[in-house]
Amino acid sequence: MTNGWNDIKNADLVLVMGGNPAENHPCGFKWAIKARQERGAKIICVDPRFNRTAAVSDIFLQIRPGSDLAFMGGLINYVIQNKKYNEEYIKHFTNAPYIVKDTYSFDPATGLFSGYDPEKRKYDQSLWGYELDEKGMAKKDMTLTHPRCVFQLMKEFYSRYTPEVVEKLTGIPKEKFLEVAKLIAETGAPDKSMTHLYALGWTHHSFGVQLIGSMAILQLLLGNIGVPGGGVNALRGHSNVQGMTDLAGEGRFLPGYLKPPKASEQTLKDHIDANTPKAVDLSMNYWSNYGKFYVSLLKAWFGNAATPENEFAYHYLPKIDKVIAMDEILDRMYRGKMEGMVSIGMNILASNPNVKKISEGLAKLKWLVVMDPFETEMANFWKYVQDPSKVQTEVFLLPSAIFAEKEGSYTNSGRVIKWKYKAAEPPGDAKDEFWVAGQLWNRIKSLYQKEGGKFPDPILNLTWNFKNPYYPTAEEVLHEMNGYALADITDEKGNVVVKKGERVPGFAVLKDDGTTACGMWLYSGVFPQSGNRAKSTDLSDPSGLGVYAGYGYSWPANRRILYNRASADPSGKPWSPKKKYIWWNEAEGKWVGHDVPDIKPDLTPDYGPFIMLPEGRGRLFAAQLVDGPFPEHYEPFESPVENILHPKTPHNPVVKVYKSDLDLLGTPDKFPYVATTYRVVEHFHYWTKHIYGTSALVPKMFIELPEELAKELGIKAGDIVRVSTARGSAEGYALPTKRIKPLVINGKKVYTVGIPIHWGNEGVVKGALANMITPFVWDPNSQTPEFKGFLCKVEKVKA
Amino acid sequence: MEDVKRLEEIEVERFSRFDRFVHWLTAVPFVYLFLSGLGMYSSKFSWLLPFLGGREFSPWLHKWAGVVFAIGVFLMFIRWAKDFMLDSDDIQWLSNVKHYIKGEEEKLPEAGKYNAGQKVFGWLVFIGGAVFLITGIVMWFPESFTPAIVRLSILLHEIAFIVVGAGFIVHVYMGTIGVPGSLSSMITGKVSALWAMAHHPKWFRQIMGR
Amino acid sequence: MATVTTEGTVGLGLRRVSASKAPDQNIKKSDQLAILVDISSCIGCKACEAACAQWHDLKPPLHTEEKLFTGYQSGPGLAPNLFMYMRFQEVEMDKGLVWAITKYQCMHCADPGCLKACPSPGAIIQYTNGIVDFDHSKCIGCKFCLSGCPFDVPRYDANNKPWKCNFCVDRVSNGLEPMCVKTCPTNALHFGTKEEMLIRANKLLEGLKKRGFDKAAVYDPPGVGGTGYIYLLPHGDKPEIYGLPKEASISPLVSLWKGPVKLIGSIVLWGTLLGAFLQLILFGPIKVGKKEKKEG
Amino acid sequence: MELTRRSFLKIGGISAGSALIAGLGFDPKPAMARVQGLKISNAKAVKSICPYCSVSCGVIIYTLTDGAMNVKPRVVHVEGNPDDPVNRGTLCPKGATLKDFINAPNRLKKPLYRPAGAKEWKEISWEEALDRIAKLIKDTRDKTFIERDEKGQLVNRCESIAWVVGSTIGNEEGYLWVKMGVALGLVARETQARI
After folding, report:
1. Which residues contact C162 (CB under 8 A, 6 or more apart)?
2. pTM for this prediction
3. Which domains are present in chain A?
4. Which residue out of B23, B62, B171, B199 is catalytically annotated?
5. Complex-level ipTM
6. Residue range A326-376, pLDDT digits in tens
7. C269 touches chain B (CB under 8 A)
8. Among candidates A58, A681, A700 on the partner chain, residue whose Cβ is nearest the Cβ of C45
């Protein structure tokens, strides 16, 4: 989330699209209800189903799954055509005036940007850069009239998304669309803001990142980024998914969004140079500190073994050619290229697409370690095959402690790090992950000490500075994450700011000379020498805007709203007294306000608010995205209709297409209905079916289908129906509903079928695994599976 | 005098073993039903319940006693329904019941084996029993019926209780103090011929004539 | 915001006691409490339903039987181990589809039909703060309370003891909000004095009317003297879509059997007894021989 | 809890007795009644965070224990932390049933092991399990370690072990596991970030 949960209450309009917060984040959704009760904000819900959010929304629009980008394109077009954008904002805070190189182009007929290589299914993104002047600064046209300035390119690009086209693609009637577009466009006024709430409803597409990009564009146009009650807010999934993303649970990062070295970057300098961007405008360009964070990380991990001579043990880090994310892991597993898997608290079998492929993949592993509080489908995968004796995988199922049984912090979706205390002991022999990590690491280490082995250096030299190395404590680890000084740290004037051995007050003091160690620069400051700020519980909120600066610790540097400098106009004055948040104090020559300014406090207002970007400005045109600088509508890989914009390129052209015998896709003649999977509020993933209280609330797997379709197929409520796709089938109780209506898409009647996911083979309540039917198709930027919008058929099994 | 004495000594069978069995099969549960019902019906008598097995047990036993009672009533009906048919004499008897109360039986039409009062009480029991049974079942399983039916059943059960309860008081009084000899007739089955002649002359002649 | 009552830590005043005369109202005083259910803010998440079961340590029914499917609803309705549940109903209205989702439980009527119908002294009590509670130690298991209830609420366990929402009288008496209210993620539930809740309900009602719900209304059925649970209904002209009776009142039959019939019954039964006694002393038993001996 | 319940029953018993008397003519009309005690009044309150979604609602876990030597604290109730600004004491149905999660009877209590080809789980000690897992990790790593790629570049990586760490794990444990994975040279690392 760019803003926080509490900030939603400052919105004048709440747009829920690509998420169902009432269902999946009810306690956060209360702030949307508050915005309505206290400020008269409207709540608009755009979804394939009239869901629980829709039940309390002011306006609900039913959209065809997978057509959201058409809707967004329509909105962007509406805002531009009707000049509803905040002109000052886009001129100064976005790259709208930047001139794009003439090697960039887009062909509306083929739906392809310039530089496409059909063989590799890849673009040459270097063709899409800005024109730079001799100093390396981007050329700009502040009048926004240059034909190749971002604004003009965008205007032309989205001019195709007329309300009529939107209706043809999404099934939303033109009048309805215009009614909503008008309300949304009104938040372009300086004293108004719109918050956008989304979640997996948008990311679960083969163009998920583009969808979010399209909203970023809309919000930038309307000047709704960096202001209270604004933002593009990802309502994330698990309790600590933000933390685990920040901490690089994914192999494409190192903690704090640092990058793992590429094979081509054979020296530390290569790597740092490649990842330290050069400012192309007046920008703080915060990633220019990349080297400091990187060296501090290496010092934190490899301690004395990381020396300037050995490039701070740079070669201890694995270098990659290619990110092996979940899609690759599963595909390689199926192809027999994986030997082992350690899974801590994940149920890969249940939660990823195409269960059959995963199940066969797991059977090809030599060994599998699963740690979980419950007996999961993943751990039991060998029980579901006909002859378990043929599965040669050695499987461990380790009982884990749960949240209440250990101490530590979680980072919530609003980036706030909060502490939890231990309340109970785990049952039986269940153990927490600190203990298991301590035990396992010391075993691996002593094996390498005793027997030697391949490249043991990083293992033998990994810092493990815990009082009890077999059982590290949470605060010991947080100490390392926060960072500490290895020598006295001085400021420019030579004053000692951090003494040797003390924890650093924040990432600003980190050094690239090996005198600081910091395992997680982004969280640096959470545990300064004065104490653990994740534990702080000060509830004061002097501005009344729900900032709560003293409650927990929000990365980065305890900022609650990201890019909050944008809450003031280019001269540094608040856009409107109603949205006053951070402003430039002329007299003192610094930024002041209700929050920690998201910019260097004394940096003059001509610097851009988007400090992490070399432009210092928000990107309406993002050459960094692999599937194109402007989001374009592509159909899901299984779609009931053709792509009327460019039938020749119906799908996202850079999506990797997996072609194993189990990677099957269906066509509308055999599978006529659109299916989408989702969650219900009473359950959480494949977890709560093990728990009595939640199981009793919704005990049965059900399939939601339009009443009209049910009638056509002779299905009544409570009948058992089977939903089949090219991959497999899942059975559940039929729930014919008025809440999903048939849509007319470009003249064709399209039915949507809804499948909640929460059941499986294990638990207090059981049911079909919804992922038996989902396609093995992934977003090319983020490797997120396409769960929303695929093709199915439905048949009655039993009345 | 001689006759009287002789008649006093002659024992005639008024109730067979079966009759007595059926009577008590009905009467014993009824006493329990009456008392526990009274305890549930009126808070002034809720103190009765602890004496009848407890506040929970007595309502429970009330239901099962009701089942036994219903069986008893059913058997009674089979046994006595025909005997309890009212004739014109009975109507006359009933309209002059004040004589009976005053102990002037001679001013009334001669009674057969059962006088009109007994017959009426019999019918009260038959009809009341049916009402008790039907409404009782509804009240036993209130969740299985619509609230309106349950409410009506409670009302009818209560009205039946008042009517049959009043009849029961009279019956007990008559059977014990009111008409000496009645109780023993229902225990031993025998009455003296004199008793029969006095209270049920028609029946007396019938059996004597045999 | 909610008014907190603490007098209950010592003991709560009583307003009504089943099958008994009214307690003295001059001893204990208390505000009338109420919960406001703002249907327009309710997302039907069942947090209240879950929290209720957890607080009361209930094991709610788990409906896995194949024949029973209730969709989003946890089951067919209340149960002795389920004091409240969320009802779901899809209704097509003039202005579009409405997913009517209602929290359903004991309404804590000001004039409680259950208490009125209950024949056992003290088994149902109403505290002066308006909470209606059951005392199982005095319950005789007759199930009359169900017949008295205009909202079909009490549910019986295997021993015929009735169970229902007790307004978390234990929490309320200790200065805590009822569990459902505290849990409600969207603040659709409000707790306080009845007076406060009516003011708040009317304020929210204005907001709803401004949003175009011109038929919105506050549901506080006068037929039972008002309720401890009041509802803000966006479609107030049709409470039945929320599963609430349009005219809630105690059935006249209950009044009949508790009032006139009881009186008549007393007269008849005592009268009969008296009659028998009079017969005995005035005329004496109807003995054998009077006539015969005369004749003889 | 137990105590108060018992005293509640006692009060019930007394009132049953008094009702008996009442029936006989002494008809007390009490003006007040005791209510059941608060089940958490003697419990220890511990601040925690709901482990489900990323709203990360503050919760308070109530445990009953006096800390005696042989007593394991028992969680008797979980409710929202009213002092947490995000949820202000509220919870969703999942959060509201956390007690059932913590106390779930089907929680795993022993490490289980399934040898290759077996048809059943068998119990195993942590010692055995961890020894074996460490060995398997080392063997696979050593066997499949790529020191240099086909271009001859130094890469020091292992691609054949998937290291997936879910996202309900806390920051500190998560950090340790990430650190271990990277130190082992593993590149197939994942978390539950998108599904």
Report:
1. C80, C114, C134, C139, C143, C145, C146, C154, C155, C156
2. 0.93
3. 6-234 (3.40.228.10), 254-317+498-533 (no CATH), 326-412+416-459 (3.40.50.740), 673-798 (2.40.40.20)
4. B171
5. 0.93
6. 999 999 999 999 999 999 999 999 999 999 999 999 999 999 999 999 999
7. yes
8. A681
